[in-house]
Amino acid sequence: MSAPDASLMDLAYEERSDLAAFLSTLSDQDWHTESLCAGWTVKDVVAHIISYEELTVGGLIKRFAKGRVVRANEVGVAEYSSLSPHELLDFLNRHLRPHGLTAGFGGMIGLVDATIHHQDIRRALNRPRIVPPHRLLRILPLVPSNPRLGAGRRIKGLRLRADDIAWEHGDGPDVAGTGEALLLAMTGRRQAAEELTGSGAATLLRRL
């Protein structure tokens, strides 16, 4: 476990290392199971995680143009679709410390992205884990104001409160649950939102 003051980059390295170790245990059927990301298999999610690692600025512009910005992630997944699960895992193991775009904001992008998608895979395969609390405590405050994740509009006017770690956000009707479930609900995962309780839980669920 890292020190309490570990950098976001170090935490991203930890999370990616845990994800790679888990992926190494999956069967071929597991890799082709649909994840919590609608329309994406586990293999697609891993392709997405690595798809920005070696992208140049010029390559990013081309990807955004091809995907008309909003579908840039799908373009990236398609670019890596020819790789086998073994090749994707090998690539991830060579990029446990984020590079390129995912190293942005001190590793914040790599940390948040890897943690959310790790859970997308785990939950889809019914292979739960407890996200290390020291990572959740660093990730959760980064999510509400991140426009890329769309959490702000989902949780507007609600008070989110984790019941397993010391984190809360906002004012209004209460939405309570584990830090992991709150993270996934804020980022649009309905399965996690259905686990939340409180007078504001139904409102959040409707917004998904």
Descriptive account of the structure:
- The chain is mostly helical and 208 residues long.
- It has 2 domains: 8-125, Four Helix Bundle (Hemerythrin (Met), subunit A) (Up-down Bundle); 144-207, no CATH class.
- It contains 12 helices and 3 strands.
- It has helices at 8-23, 28-31, 42-50, 57-66, 72-79, 85-93, 104-124, 133-139, 151-155, 179-186, 190-193, 201-207; strands at residues 159-162, 168-169, 174-177.
- Strands 2-1-3 form a 3-stranded mixed β-sheet.
- A hairpin with a 5-residue loop joins strand 1 (159-162) and strand 2.
- It is globular.
- The model has no long low-confidence stretch (mean pLDDT 92).
Any chance you could write out the topology, listing elements then pairs?
Blueprint: H1 8-23, H2 28-31, H3 42-50, H4 57-66, H5 72-79, H6 85-93, H7 104-124, H8 133-139, H9 151-155, E1 159-162, E2 168-169, E3 174-177, H10 179-186, H11 190-193, H12 201-207
Parallel strand pairs: 1-3
Antiparallel strand pairs: 1-2
InterPro entries: DinB/YfiT-like, Maleyloyr_isom, MDMPI_metal-binding
Protein name: DinB family protein
Organism: Mycolicibacter sinensis (strain JDM601)
Please report the total strand number as a whole number. Answer: 3
Strand fraction: under 5%
Q: What is the CATH topology assignment of the largest domain? A: Four Helix Bundle (Hemerythrin (Met), subunit A)
Tertiary shape? globular
CATH superfamily of the largest domain: dinb family like domain
Report how far the terminal alpha carbons are from each other.
34 Å
Let me know the average pLDDT: 92
> In CATH, what is the class of the largest domain?
Mainly Alpha
Main sheet record: 3 strands, mixed
What's the SSE pattern?
Answer: HHHHHHHHHEEEHHH
Helix content: 40-55%
For the record, the count of structural domains works out to: 2
The SS-based structural class is: mainly alpha
* Widest beta sheet: strand line-up: 2-1-3
Runs in which pLDDT lies below 50 for 5 or more consecutive residues are none
What is the CATH architecture term of the largest domain?
Answer: Up-down Bundle
User: Helix count, per DSSP?
Assistant: 12
What is the gyration radius calculated from CA atoms?
17 Å
InterPro entries: DinB/YfiT-like (IPR034660), Maleyloyr_isom (IPR017517), MDMPI_metal-binding (IPR024344)
GO molecular function, one term: metal ion binding
Domain Mycothiol-dependent maleylpyruvate isomerase metal-binding: 14-94
Pfam families: MDMPI_N
